[in-house]
Amino acid sequence: MKVDEALKIVYEYTIGDNSILYSLRVGLGLNENNYNTLIEAMKILITEYSNKTEVPKKLALCFVDISNYFYFNEGKYSEEEEEKLEDAIHEISNLAGKLFE
Questions:
Q1: What's the rounded Cα separation, in Å, for the pair 101 and 81?
Q2: Range(s) of the domain holding residue 39
Q3: At residue 16, what are phi and psi to the nearest 5 degrees?
Q4: Domain total for the chain?
Q5: CA-CA distance, 38 to 93, in Å (whole number)?
Q6: Residue 50, phi then psi, degrees to nearest 5
Q7: DSSP of 28-48, one letter per residue?
Q8: Which long-range contacts does 67-70 make (Cβ < 8 Å, 24+ apart)?
Q9: Kind plus residue range of the DSSP H or E element containing 80
Q10: N or C terminus of the chain: which is more exposed, having fewer CB within 10 Å?
């Protein structure tokens, strides 16, 4: 995957019409394929931007206030599902942190 493709994927799955985080908040669950693609794209961008002092503004926007998406309305997911989703969001958050180190 090239950097420009990785950027498009991150944009689409974080702030776009297919936002993974939005889907989780409204109770639609986690699309595993989209999640795995997002993680792969984020890792590529970490490699690309790890030694640079600047990142694209839109990329930064994708992860501004990301913690707002960490809270689910009670009753949307079972306890087991919530644990799985929290793990997924934790991984996204950790990778976002690495992107901006």
A1: 30
A2: 3-99
A3: -90, -170
A4: 1
A5: 12
A6: -60, -30
A7: ----HHHHHHHHHHHHHHHHH
A8: 67/93, 69/21, 69/22, 69/24, 69/25
A9: helix 79-99
A10: C
Q: Is 26 helix (H, G, I), strand (E, B) or coil?
A: coil
Residues 6, 45 contacting (CB under 8 angstroms): yes
Tens of pLDDT, residues 53-100:
888 999 988 877 666 666 666 678 888 888 888 888 889 888 988 888
What distance in Å separates the CA atoms of residue 57 and residue 82, rounded to the nearest whole number?
31
Give the whole-angstrom CA distance, residue 37 versus residue 58: 19
Burial class (CB in 10 A: 0-12, 13-18, 19+), 81: middle
Question: In this predicted structure, what is the pLDDT of residue 89?
Answer: 85
| Cβ pair 57, 2 in contact under 8 A | no
Task: Judge contact between 10 and 45, C-beta under 8 A.
Answer: yes
Residue 37: per-residue pLDDT: 97
Strand locations in the chain (E): none
